Amino acid sequence: MTSKTKAPGACDTEGFTNPGNDLNCPTADRVQQRRFATLAAQFALAGYSLIGRNSAEGAVAYYAMRWGYLKVLPTLDAAHVFLMQIGGVR
User: Fold this and answer.
1) C-alpha span between 24 and 46 (Å, rounded)
2) Which of 69, 36, 68 is nearest to 52 (CA)?
3) DSSP strand E in 3-81: where?
4) Taking Cα atoms as reference points, which of 47, 56, 54, 55 lies closest to residue 33?
5) How many CA within 13 A on the CB side of residue 27?
6) What domain range includes position 80?
7) Quick one: CA dihedral 78, 63, 42, 37, positive or negative?
8) Whether this model's pTM surpasses 0.90
9) Residue 60: which of 44, 72, 75 has the closest Cα?
10) Do the Cβ atoms of 69 and 82 come closer than 8 Å?
């Protein structure tokens, strides 16, 4: 005997959602997240850590750190420029 109901997650039904994907975020946010992840990886290859923090007002600041050195970077563009200065982009 077979059932005519679809399994959870099958097409055209409400099923499980994957919290790991970022499809519920606006496209601009996904682009920024991917850009940050790429820069963080490039900083790591150069021996630095790149951290992003949200302020109470919603603005994001980025910090490059290495051996007690802290560089405040207001935007991802500034982070990319600093990465080029330290020789992290090849």
Assistant:
1) 32
2) 36
3) 49-54, 60-66, 69-73
4) 54
5) 0
6) 46-90
7) negative
8) no
9) 75
10) no
Residue 63 CB-density burial (10 A; 0-12 exposed, 13-18 middle, 19+ buried) = middle
The residue written with tokens 């090849």 in the block is 90
Q: Which two tokens stand for residue 51?
A: 């951290």
- The answer as to whether 54 is a domain residue is yes
The domain tally of the chain equals 1
pLDDT in tens, 8-63: 544 444 444 455 555 555 666 777 788 888 888 998 998 999 888 876 666 678 88
Angle, vertex CA 55, rays to CA 52 and CA 58, nearest 5: 100
